[in-house]
Design goal:
about 0% strand
Length: about 160
């Protein structure tokens, strides 16, 4: 069994059937995050929303800022939340593949996904998902084939 590198966008970001090494995980996670931030900035400009003014009024109180935004720009909150959830789904798929490289099931990926979604309501919950993501980034994958497929670093260790 030989590792076949991803060649299409779908294989790179959507499949959940193969292993993913640390470097590819980092690069693809950064791409998803960059696209999400870019779409967020486009949305912010298109709807002419000045987040800084809400933060100046509400300070770092997440609830106050959210209430102010909900009153004046509910479409911004709804669309940006949808974009964040879509980004979290793509990151979930990458997390699942990274866990396969570690020869683990997808339970940690589910926790990261839930933390990302719940993080909109309880921002500190996101920290749990961040710690798991750092683990996925730093943990060395299983050398050689495992039950999830061939080694993505085949011949390069």
């Amino acid at each position: 069994m030989h590792y076949a590198p991803d060649t299409t966008i779908k294989e790179m970001f959507w499949t959940g059937t193969s292993r993913l090494n640390r470097l590819r995980y980092l690069k693809r996670s950064l791409v998803v995050t960059f696209v999400n931030v870019l779409l967020y900035m486009i949305l912010k400009a298109a709807l002419d929303v000045n987040i800084e003014s809400y933060v100046n009024i509400g300070g770092f109180d997440f609830e106050v800022v959210s209430e102010l935004l909900w009153e004046s720009a509910p479409e911004f909150l709804i669309i940006s939340s949808a974009l964040d959830i879509i980004g979290a789904v793509f990151l979930y798929k990458l997390d699942v593949r990274r866990l396969k490289d570690l020869s683990k099931d997808n339970k940690l990926a589910i926790i990261v996904f839930v933390c990302a979604v719940v993080g909109h309501v309880l921002p500190y919950v996101s920290i749990i998902g961040a710690f798991i993501s750092v683990y996925l980034l730093l943990a060395k994958g299983v050398e050689g084939d495992n039950i999830y497929g061939p080694d993505p670093l085949e011949g390069r260790r």
